[in-house]
Design a protein that fits this description.
about 200 residues, alpha+beta
Amino acid sequence: MINKTYKLVTAFMVVLLVLGLTLVACKSQQPETEQPSAPPAQGAEQPALSYKAKTYTNSQYGCSIQYPEEWEEYPAVVQGTVIASFSVPGFVPGVSLSVRDADAPLTADWIVAANTAEGNTDVKVTSDIKEITLADGTPAMAYASSFASGQYDIVSFATSTDKNGKRIRATVWTIDAFAPYDEALFLEIARTLSVK
């Protein structure tokens, strides 16, 4: 009886070993995931988005943005410097476009003052302000921030660029408790800001 049990356990271990080696071999056959490439040069073909998009265009300021097609217009925040806003039907996440006078360099202090002027409180810039290139080839600045809007604590990612004396900003935002912050997606959306 012990000899039969030993043979059964040995056969079972051999099967597990073969299955494990097969799984490793299959995984090593899969192509590696491509790393993100540098933004295209001006006039180059735009990279494909990871989401199906709708495009909002504002002819007054000559800007546009591509946002996920299932998002809807969110007019509740369109006031003052905010010219357009779109979000999932349940409010978060979303994206807003704002236009202000480019009256000073883009610094953390300028961002805090501008967001506070929109009625937000406890505004903080939570990352370095980095130079990036938008998908259309336009130089821009990008940063993460947090602020309180009414009773909600918002986390966001923004891109800003200056055109004709105006600072045009795309801010992708969420309430972490309801829809977790996804910087890769938020950057992808914010980089579709175009000022051509």
